[in-house]
Amino acid sequence: MHLFTSTVGRKILMAVTGLLLVGFITIHLIGNLTIFAGNEAINIYAAGLHSMPPVVWIFRLVILVLFAIHITFGIQLTVENSAATPEQYAIQVTQKTTFAAKSMIYTGLIILAFILYHLLHFTMHVVHTDAIEPYNQLVNGRHNVFGMVGTSFQSAFITIAYAIAIIALAFHLTHGLQSFIQTLGWSNGPSQDKVSAIGKLVAIAYGVLYVAIPLAFLFHILKV
Amino acid sequence: MNLTLHVWRQKGPQVKGKLETYQAKNISEDQSFLEMLDDVNEDLIKAGKDPIAFDHDCREGICGMCSQVINGKAHGGDERTTVCQLHMRRFNDGDDIVIEPWRAKAFPVQKDLIVDRAALDVIMQAGGYTSCHTGGVADGNALLIPKPTADYAMDAAECIGCGACVASCPNSSAMLFTSAKVAQLAALPQGKAEAKDRVRNMTQALLDEGFGNCTNHYECQDACPKGISVKFIAKLNREYLKTVAK
Ligand code: FES
């Protein structure tokens, strides 16, 4: 298929899967933020989710496919692009590009590593087994997700690991969001800078909202 | 003014090159950058040394031959300025200037600052034209094209094929060049008939020639001596999407 081999086709696949993944992190974020709605809210939310295994699994499968496409082509394009520039300039001064744009592969890989760690931590309960202990103590007949999350983020190490990943995500989005608009051909000359600025704001918003949760526990704004 | 130049010297395509240092003495600020290099070369010739090989032709900013990265910026980095139009008044006495050739796999260095930009021609041959019978001369206004459309196509057609977009791109992509051609022809009635094949074939040629993929750094737009906008890349993407939707 042309879409999977051509230069613009793969660019479009990166953009579309990227945006759908932003959709995923949006839903995930909304779910997470229920943690601020009292000690029970996130437990109810989690119990609700887990009462519909087919929905959860279909959702997980879709996300997996999206990630697979986004990561495969991301790496493939990066490899091709560095092969296209075998010799570096003695001096190279960039005029327009950003740190975020240049570090997409690195922020992407940090996010990938984080996702694996995050799954091992909160989904599979393989790492930080002490911190996830509260999960197994039922509160009103429901798993105590609030307690698990809260206990985890009392550890500075875990909080820092999460914060690093969220910063990487914010940078990734800074370039990704405006890139999406350009790739689908929706930008014209004058709109370019505005789209970039809005993309930056949205990326920062995601970063702040996500990082608010671990920090809230670390600084005892939320208490287990 | 007196300047210290650090110039990329490379004897041939297969030989390893390196930066060498030269002194440019008594340079007038009214000289162009290429005229400054001419002076340096005369000194080199008098000293029995091999002059610095560099490309140039028109020396008036329209042919796109003068391909040099000066202090890390294609064409020296002045807005809408080719190397031949860059003047020494932009530099100060005692400055160090680093001069390198375009660097990209698709632009192999031939000698010193001269690279082979034929890969851009290959992209053009893949679809940068319309196939039509030329016949007799058509009446001036037989084909009606609105002024904004004509202007848009003209803006895209300003591209002189110098390759600064590739030289400045962190991915060495020729997407700005390709998009200028695709957008120019896609905007006009003459180009519509072959629009789908054109965008596919030209972008394929871009990959085949060893250029990188565009990842929206937008360096090209700032480096372009003709101010070609990345809006034409957005246009190329739209043209490509049409071929997917069919
Ligand atoms: S020599 Fe023709 S553009 Fe510079």
TrEMBL record, chain A:
The keyword Transmembrane helix applies. Signal peptide: none annotated. GO terms for cellular component: membrane. The chain crosses the membrane at residues 12-37, 57-79, 99-120, 156-177, 198-222. Keywords: Membrane, Transmembrane, Transmembrane helix. InterPro entries: Cytochrome_b-558, SQR/QFR_C/D. SUPFAM superfamilies: Fumarate reductase respiratory complex transmembrane subunits. This is Succinate dehydrogenase subunit C.
TrEMBL record, chain B:
Pfam families: Fer2_3, Fer4_8. InterPro entries: 2Fe-2S_ferredoxin-like_sf, 2Fe2S_fd_BS, 4Fe4S_Fe-S-bd, 4Fe4S_Fe_S_CS, Beta-grasp_dom_sf, Helical_ferredxn, SDH/FRD_Iron-Sulfur, Succ_DH/fum_Rdtase_N. One of its GO terms (molecular function) is electron transfer activity. Gene3D superfamilies: 3.10.20.30, Alpha-helical ferredoxin. Residues 150-180 form the 4Fe-4S ferredoxin-type domain. Its cofactor is [2Fe-2S] cluster; [3Fe-4S] cluster. SUPFAM superfamilies: 2Fe-2S ferredoxin-like, alpha-helical ferredoxin. The keyword Iron-sulfur applies. Keywords: Iron, Iron-sulfur, Metal-binding. It comes from the Bacteria. Transmembrane segments: none annotated. One of its GO terms (biological process) is aerobic respiration. PANTHER family: SUCCINATE DEHYDROGENASE (PTHR11921:SF41), SUCCINATE DEHYDROGENASE IRON-SULFUR PROTEIN (PTHR11921). Belongs to the succinate dehydrogenase/fumarate reductase iron-sulfur protein family. This is Succinate dehydrogenase subunit B. It comes from Malonomonas rubra DSM 5091.
